[in-house]
Amino acid sequence: MANTYTLIQAQTLASAAASVTFSAIPATYTDIVLRVSARRAEAGRQDLLIKPNNDTSNNSGTNIQGSGAAATSNATSAQSIKIANIIPSTNETASTFCNAEFYMPNYAGSANKPSGTFGVGENNATTAYIVGNASLSQIASAISSVVLSLASGTFDTGSSFYLYGIKNS
Amino acid sequence: MPATYEPIATQTLGSATATITFSSIAASWTDLRLSLVGSVTSASTQYYLRFNGVSSGGPYSGTYLGGDGTTASSTRYTSSNEIPINGINTGGTTTPHFFITDIFSYAGSTYKTCLIEISHDRNGSGFVERAVGLWRSTAAITSVTITLNSGNMAAGTTATLYGIKAA
Fold first, then answer.
1. pLDDT surpasses 90 at A4
2. How close does chain A come to B110, measured CA to CA in Å?
3. What pLDDT, on a 0 to 100 scale, did the predictor assign at position B110?
4. Cβ–Cβ of B5/A62 closer than 8 Å?
5. Which CATH class name applies to B5-164?
6. What is the percent of chain B where pLDDT is above 70?
7. Interfacial residues of B (vs A; Cβ cutoff 8 Å)
8. Are B33 and B116 spatial neighbours (Cβ–Cβ below 8 Å)?
9. Rounded CA gap, A103 and A53, in Å?
């Protein structure tokens, strides 16, 4: 039986970049998975923003996060998919990167698209975050691109991004 | 390179159905991954996971962390007859939900742990949960059953079982 977890494209930053784009995603898979290891090149922890088809107004989300001191939950609407607080910055422990996995089933279908993200930004400091996020993209067209950015600032050198496709048959 | 992530079986419902079962699971892989995307016909229901058809004797326990967009919560259950997956609402075709469950070392002789990620945002409401479940059995898992505590899974719901090899 064929392997069905296939790398579509990988990007590792040789210099800081404000965004990373995966484009021309074929509709040949059932689901897509995006795996992120990233750090901010400036000071101040930031949110990771995920934009299916570069859409910044038709995504909503429900998240749960723990900071090491408290657990909270909040909701977002009419914006990018937001994974709050997981991107470490230059004023945190050196060489610490967040890790996150974003999973979107039925990305090539015509229905609204649910997705989920599980991310962490551990840094051996007082505050760090673990985040679970449920999102809904009210986008009827197939997802053919995904743009990632920060709420502010740039991804640091060495940040890496891997997009996989999964077939269920 | 050998195949390490393979679809074992997929079921897409042609009509509303209360239960999906994957049976005769071979011991050929290291871990299993179960994914489901779709909707249900009853509000505020729960999915239940069971292994090898076991639904008595209280062999399941678990801990979950969840959030509804306003409040974070965490709950444990012990001596249960199923592994519950919470926070599901009808949603319909416009706000489908999905979950992933990783079942580790499913064919071994130790107790079986699974990691559950449920995501169901509904644009203004919703629920997200990350949970762990334990089945206190030394038997290899040969079947996985997904059912509900009320109602049905809607037509079009798709569940897929994957096998993952460590090498």
1. no
2. 27
3. 97
4. no
5. mainly beta
6. 97
7. 1-7, 10, 35, 37, 65-72, 74, 93-100, 117-130, 158, 160, 162
8. no
9. 15
- Asked if A1's CB is within 8 angstroms of B120's CB, the reply is no
Which residue ranges make up each domain of chain B? 5-164
CB contact under 8 A, B121 and A112: no
Model confidence over A18-69: pLDDT tens digits? 999 999 999 999 999 999 999 999 999 999 999 999 999 999 999 999 999 9
Pick the CATH number of A5-166 from 3.90.1210, 3.55.50, 3.40.50, 2.60.120: 2.60.120
pTM over 0.90: yes
Amino acid at position A130, single letter? I
Of B65, B119, B160, B161, which to mutate for an interface test with A (greatest number of A Cβ within 10 Å)?
B119
Residue keyed to tokens 């801990």: B63
Neighbouring CB atoms inside 10 A of A23's CB total 11
Show me where the domains of chain A are located.
5-166
Closest alpha carbon within chain B to A74: B69
A119 has pLDDT over 90: yes
CA atoms of B133 and B50, how far apart (whole Å)? 11
Contact A73 B95 (CB under 8 A): no
The full 3-state SS of B60-128, as one line of letters, equals EEEEEEEECCCCEEEEEEEEECCEEEEEECCCHHHCCEEEEEEECCCCCCCCEEEEEEEEEECCCCEEE
Look-up of token digits 């996150």: A100
pLDDT band at A166; cut points 50, 70, 90: very high
pLDDT number for residue B2: 61
